[in-house]
Each structure stands twice: as structure tokens, then as C-alpha cells.
Amino acid sequence: MSVIIPYIDKPNPVTGVTNAKLGIWLFLASEVMLFGALFSTLIILRSSATDWPAHGSDVLNVPLATLNTVFLITSSVTIVLSWASLKMKNLMKFKLYMGLTVLLSFGFLIIKYFEYSSKFHHEHYPSTSTFYAVYFTMTGLHGLHVIGGIITNLYLMGPGSKMWKTEPERFTGRIECAGLYWHFVDLVWIFLFPALYLL
Amino acid sequence: MRMEHPHYGFWLPPNISTHGAEIDKLISVLHWFMLVLFVGWALYLVYCLIRFRERPGHEADISGSTHFSLPKYIEIGIIIFEAVLLVFFSFPIWSKVKRDFPNEADALVVRVTAEQFAWTVHYAGKDGKFGQLKIELIDGTNPVGLDRQDPNGKDDILSPNTLNIPVNKPIIAKLTSKDVIHNFFLPVMRVKQDIIPGMTVPVWFQATQTGKFEIGCAQLCGVGHTQMRGFFNVMSQEEFETWYQEEEKSLLASSDEPLPGKPLEVAKIQTIKESK
Amino acid sequence: MSQDTHNHSHGHDHSHSMSHELPFWRKYIFSTDHKVIGLQYGITAVFFLLFGFGLMLLMRWQLAFPKQAIPLIGKLFTEDGVLSPELYNQFGAMHGTIMVFLGVVPLGVGAFGNYLVPLQVGAQDMAFPKLNMMSYWVYFIGGVIMLASFFSPNGAAASGWTSYPPLSVVADNGQSFWLIGMVFLITSSLLGSVNTIVTAIQLRVKGLSFMRWPVLVWAQVVTAFLLLLAFPPLEAAGVLQLMDRLAGTSFFLPSGLVVSGEALKVSGGGNPILWQHLFWFLAHPEVYVLILPAVGIVGEIIAVNTKKPLYGYKTLIYSIIFLGFMSFIVWAHHMFMTGMGVTMSTFFQATTMIISVPSIIILTTYLLTLWGASIRYTVPMLFAVAFLPMFAIGGLTGLPLGLTASDIHLHDTYYVIGHFHYVVAPGSLFALMAGVYHWYPKITGRFMSDTLGKIHFWLSVVAINGVFMPMFFMGMAGVSRRLYDQTIYAHGAAAQPLNVIMSCCAWALAVAQLPFLYNMATSWKWGKKVESNNPWGGTTLEWATASPPPHENFTTPVEVFRGPYEYSSNKKPLPQFVQEA
Fold this sequence. Notes:
The complex is a heterotrimer.
Chain A: H1 19-48, H2 56-59, H3 62-87, H4 91-121, H5 130-157, H6 163-166, H7 168-198
Helix pairs in contact in A: 1-5, 1-7, 3-4, 3-7, 4-5, 5-7
Chain B: E1 2-3, H1 20-51, H2 70-98, E2 108-115, E3 118-123, E4 157-160, E5 162-166, E6 171-177, E7 182-186, E8 191-195, E9 201-205, E10 210-217, E11 230-235, H3 237-254
Parallel strand pairs in B: 1-10, 2-6, 5-11
Antiparallel strand pairs in B: 2-3, 3-4, 6-9, 7-8, 7-10, 10-11
Chain C: H1 8-20, H2 24-29, H3 34-64, H4 85-121, H5 129-148, H6 167-170, H7 174-202, H8 215-247, E1 258-259, E2 262-263, H9 272-306, H10 313-326, H11 342-369, H12 379-396, H13 398-402, H14 404-410, H15 414-444, H16 450-476, H17 490-526, E3 566-567, E4 573-574
Antiparallel strand pairs in C: 1-2, 3-4
Helix pairs in contact in C: 3-4, 3-5, 3-17, 4-5, 4-7, 4-8, 4-9, 4-15, 5-7, 7-8, 8-9, 8-10, 9-12, 9-15, 10-11, 11-12, 12-15, 12-16, 15-16, 16-17
């Protein structure tokens, strides 16, 4: 007899969710605490400083960041469309929308790269001031989350999609979880953008 | 009254501060309360362990209908007692110690600077005004970076590792740290305060007896943490004045030259608002 | 499971043989079986506990006999055999870190949680077996990094387990190892807690409603929530401190620092108190992470050995949940002496007093369970009973520390050390030892020796009180913690005889653990065999299956028919899994 773990593809009738969905929600709760701590850091440092060293709207590239915001919001839409395509049993459309999501995320990272390198070019490093320290640390950690999302999404689009043939419901569930994670990454950016670039 | 040989043992050290008696009283009330509660629990526990041990002819009462209401009343009693401790002991003492500072005009104000692993006590001198401190003047002979050029700083006294105070006079000590977190601990005065670099934290106290005591560092501050012991002398008013005048005299005798100091490179400075 | 239907019978056979003939490394090293992973956690944690305890045994020589060479082995550490202040600080910091993050938590949560939660909810494994394996190995790597830090050029972290900046930022490289190690340990805990919660909620067998969960499952789930929500802020803080150390930022460094006569070349503008807030936001819930699994274990053992239902099960569960919730809003009572104002201290004193209420209720329900019982004094029951007064001392002595006024004198003295050690050493650790004795027959199919167990118990209970009780007196006398040599101070020198007593008791405590270790090792092969699935008369699901349980835990499907601690009218235990009343 092999080990059987229930509720992998179908939701538990009592709780109404699959294991993976409950798991991803719990994981996101802990992520909220992680970024919550970082935002608190920003608030505490900024409110206790007599002279906040720099304002994002003066020193950061707001148009580029706005473009990035558009990229991420669009990618949140495309990942929902990819999930909806699976619901309509259309694997090709799923791959198309997932591909778009990954492309948009790459676009985000490329813009981030230009932003970072222009800062380094002007000799602005994390050690320059607490503003840059917060800026690089928070956008850097967010960037790592984007990279993590890209790797997961690429896997689900490529080798991971084999599961569609054997366990379509479980695979759709996985895409839903990836989507939830991606919405979270998007949401963090929506908080980061005004906190760092506009205020 | 003079405390020649303060007695230290396995319980609270002697108290020579005006506010310490209240703290000691709270500590003793608390420990009686804890003792009563613990002895009560322990007696009950031992009784149960013997009376209800497994033995032939004895069976557990599994009815589950036994309901105890006494514990509920004990619990309510504990809650009320804790509220009393908060409202009548802890809050008033804390606000007396932390908020109700004596008037600076009536008190002796000193600056205490902590560093790895020494204390420097800075007195304002005859004029009652502290000289400016400049980070670039800090060196071995001038640990706080006192600017002797500043007219207010000419007569300031720096006392290494020793805090001398007069008895029966309120003292306000403004604590700062040059490097890491230290803790200004005067066991006999019931004074304990973290010194956070970047902030100036004031404490106040008033001694009721003279004697020779110690300053301790109560926060791990590095490899020499243990060595960071200072001297704390409570003197009669006359003794204190004599000492103060002698320090002033030797200061004038030394030289009018400003103390040597090699300028330090200092990065762009931001400051933290002093927290109250 | 994922076999095609036409291939089903063949697939079934194949997986059947798989589960029995996995290669050694898949079965015992990179296993996905929660029972094996639980044991891996347990064995690793015991190793770390002994290591951390060993560090303290060396420090206790310096404390009892300052500046005297450690006999026999001293030369291994320094040239003259005297423990140097550098090593003393490193050992102190690593003792705390190892005991908390690599010892007690992995044993309570990793080992007992992993082994028992799936069994007690009737699951065949954790919800995410591969994730479970990963969390063990991430923990293992974190532990290796911590140990490796001793071999870094200037040794291990030496700024205390609390790692307060700026000291920790200007400290040697060991601190970076510490931070990286912590990031691994935190990640491991996060993965583990997601797994525990999902397993307990999703994989419950039919009939097991929340209010039928054994107290151990409740305790583990609340613990998992604490880990899940409290650990990330420390992870953030760890990243920020790493940035301060490696990228030259100033998150925790204010402007104008002068360290050893040199102005620190940093931008400044940071705040050292920020670290303390982020740290204690984790570390206070962490205290409950240390104690709640113990509360769960003691509850199970008391329920089984009193042979009557647990008193006030619902009250107990609500108290555990309330305790978990409150533990998030008391953290700043560790920071009363940082210059905190009146308003903030009022709030945190009040919450601290409130959190004492559920703790007392938990203790009371256990004490009242003893009334009218028929107490069977097995070795686990001895430890579980000893837990009660020890936990009470630990809890009560928190009171003077939770009130700011009395904390002025007692803050950062040995009183604090005595207080939290009573909670975690004769508290949590006694409960964990009780758990080892209690579930050993289930895990191995053999009993541990009763005689050796009783020797272990009586020696430990005397010695451990000899170590920690004098600390209260020393703290009263005003002796600060983390002092390399307290005899420099007049009040320290006066209290020094207490140090000699404590050290001797600590070494005696070490000797007292030898019968335990011997017992654990030898009973595996030579212990008395278990004759039934349920040797203690337990009522929860883990006693429904064979000892040791097979790979899939339950060979026949199980179902739950009633609450966790019920008895029939003829005073026989009525297990959850038996239908007939």
C-alpha cells in the first residue's frame, strides 16, 4: 500500500479548499508579515529622522517605475487569463497567456536593471544614505520574488505542464496558486511604488 | 549618614536612593504574593499526588461532572491583584522615575558618556553650562570631544570612570553612548537605563547616604563588558565642593592650550530626534 | 496515485514494493515519511541540545572559578587553558541560539509535531511530504552554518543570542554566519509550519472535528501559526542587519558613532531600537513556541496516566488560542529599559499582565485533572507532573519582570535567566523528555527502561533546581547577566558562592543525562517488547496503529467517533477510534 494524501486535486468538502490552496494562503500570510516588517522599518526610520536624506520623486525615475507598474498589473491580468484558459480546457491559450506573463515580468526586471545601473553610475549605493538603503533592500527583495515567480511560471509553462494530461484538476490548482502568489508580488509593488517613488 | 561598608549578599543590595524604597516594597509584595500562590499550588499538587495515586481498590472518578468553582474565584482574585499592582505600584513609580524630573535649576546636571569599556562623567563647571562637544575632537585625552575653545567649555570637568555626587541633592544624568548600547546601572540607587547610541536619555536620582559604590554596565557591550566598572561616590556637600574646586584648580594649572586632537573624518551626519 | 487506469494493478504492485524496498538513502536520509523526518529532527535536535549544553558547562567553569584553567580539556580552547572573554561571549551567544533555534524548537515542533500530528489526525503523511523533507534539510544546513561559524577566523557570533546592534554590526565575521544561519532556520520553520497547519486542518479523518482534536494537535497548530507570522519580521531584520554588515547600510546605525577611537564611516541615520522591536516581535511569540508543544505533550501524558478525562478541555483549548494571540502584543516588555515613555510602557505592562491569565488557566486545568484521578506513576508521568510546579515558578517569576517598576532592578540580571530557564529547561525540556519516554514504545515497539528512567528523573529534578533556583537570589543581589567575571563588582563578589553551587549542579545535571542517553540508545534493540498497539491505554488515534506504525500509518481505515479523552462507564478508556461505547 502506498501513502495516500487526499484533497490534492479536489477540495476538502469541509474546508472547501485543496491542500495547496490553503498552503499558499498561509505562505502569503507569512509574506505579508515579511514585507510588513520592511514597510514598518521604512516608516520608523523616516519618522524618526530629522532630515530624510532624499525623496523618491526627486531622485528616482518615476516614469520608468510607472511603466513597471503597468507591466506588473497587466501580468496579473494575463496570469488570470491563463488560469481561465485552463478552466476552458485550452492548453494552448494557457501557454500563450502564461508566456505573456513571463515576458511582462522580464520587462519589469529589465527596467529594474536600467534603474539600478543608473543609480550605480551616479554612485548611489545602499550605503549612501538610509533612503537608498531602504530603496535597494526593498526593491531588491521584491525583485527576488519576481525572479522566483518567473522560475515557477516558466516551469509550469514548460515541463510542469505535462501534468495537464494526467491530472488536469491538480494542474489547474497549481496555476491558481501561482496566480495568487503573482498577485501578491504585484500587490507589494503597488505599495512599494508610492512609498518609495512618490512620497 | 555614611555607609562605610555596604553589605551585599544574596538578596537586594542596600538602597540609598529616595525612590528605591518603593521599588523594593513592590518587589517584596510581589514575592510574598508569588510565594503564597506557589505554596498553595504545591500543597494541592502534593495532596493530589498522594491521595489519588494508583493503588488496589482505588479508581478514577470519570463522571466528568465534578465542577470546581473555587479556581475561578482564585483566578479573578489574581486578576484584581495584578490590576492593583499595575495601578497602585508600577504606574506611579514608573511615572515618578521616568516623567517627574526635578527642575534642572535645583539639580546637579551631569553628562555621562559610555564607550567600550569606560565611562566619562562630564560636569558643567562653575558657569553651569556645558561646553560644545565635537566628534572630530575625540581622542585618547578628550574622550567626549569637548571643545575647550568654547567659552562654556573652558571650566568643564571630565571625570574618567568616576561619578561623584553630593548627598541629598537631585541629580540629572544625561546618558549618551559613543559606540554600542550600554546600560547605566547603579545597584544601590535602583537606577538602570539602557544607553542607546544616537540618543540622549536622561535619568534622575537622589542619594540619601554617603559612601563609595559602583557603576555597572548591565548590557553586553563587547569583549570587555565585565571590565566596564565605574566608581560612584556619594559625598557630603562640603566634600563634594572641595573635590569640585580642586578639579577646577588643576584644570587652570594644566594649560590654556586647547587639548590636542586629531580631526576625524566624519560622514554626512543625520541625527535621530531625541526620544522622550 | 498518478498511474493510468489501464496500468493500475501493475502500478499498485509496483508502489507496494517501492515502499518496502526503497534504497537506504531514500528510506532514512532523503525520506518523505513524516515519521522518519520526525526522527531525523529529533536526533539532530538532541545532538544540538547536548552541544549547546556542553558550551554552558564550559562557561560555568569560568563563572565558578574565574580565570582558572579548565581542567583536562582547557588547553583545547586556549593556550593557558583559561576560557578567554572572547570565547566566553561566543559560547554565551551560541548557547542561547543553539538551545532555542536548533534544540528545543526542532525537538518540540520538528520532531514531536512531525511524528505525532499526522498520526493524531489519522493522516497517512504530512500534506506536503517533499516540502517536509526540504524543511528538515534547510534546518540541517542552518545548523551546519551555525557550527561552521566557530571555525571562522575570529570565531562565532559573540553579541548574545539577541544580537543587538550596533554591537552586532561592528562585530567579527561570526555574526554574518549567524545571520545567514538564521535565515535558513527561519525558512525551515516557515515551510514546516505551513505543512503542520495544512495537515491538521485538511487531512483530518472522518469525525475528527476541531473540538475533537487532541490538545497536542491544538498546541502544535497554534505554535505553527506563531512561527508563521512572527518569524518573517526577524527574517526581514536579519536581512537588514546583513545589509548593514556587508553592504555598508545604516539601518541600525545612528549618525556619529565612534568605535575604538575611530569615527565609523557610514551614512548613519538608522535606529538601533528598530532591531529590538523586530527581534522581540519574533522572540516573544518564540517563548510560546518553546512552551506550547510542551503544554500539548504534558496534556496528553496527564490524560493517559490519570485515567480520567482532561478537566475543562474547551477552556484549555480557548486558553491556548488566546495565549497565542496575546503573545503578539507583549513584545516590548523586553525593552522597558530602552528609554520607553509612560504611554507605551503602560500598554505593554497591561498586556503582559493579561497574558498571565491564560497561562494560569492552562496550569489550573492540568492541576484539576489530578483531582479524583488514579495516577499511574510511569516515568513520563513523573516528568509531566514535575513540569507543573517548574512551569509555575517560571511563570510567576515573570511577574516582577513584567512590571516596569520592579524590572528597573531586575532587568538583565540573573533573575531573568532564572525566569526563562525555569520555563524552557525544567519546563519545556522536562515535557519533551516525558514525550520521549511516552511515545518511545510507539516509535520503536519497545519500552525504555523504567529503572534508568527513574534515576534520570530524580537526579535531573534535583540538579536542575540547583542550577536555576540560586539565579533568582543572584539576580536580586543585582548581578548582571553575561558577565565574564562578576567578582570584579562588590555585589558580584558577595554572590559568587552561588555560582559555585550552580556550576556543580550543572555538571551533576550533565551526569544525570547519561542514563537517559544510554536508555534511549540501548532500548531501541534490547528494550522490553510492546505487546499491544496501545500499551498505556491511550485514547487518541496514534494508539490505533501498530508500533512502530507502518509507512502509511494506518493499514485499515480509521474513523473518529468521539472527543479525545473519554471513558466508558466501567472506567475503561474509550479511544476515539473505537465505535462501540
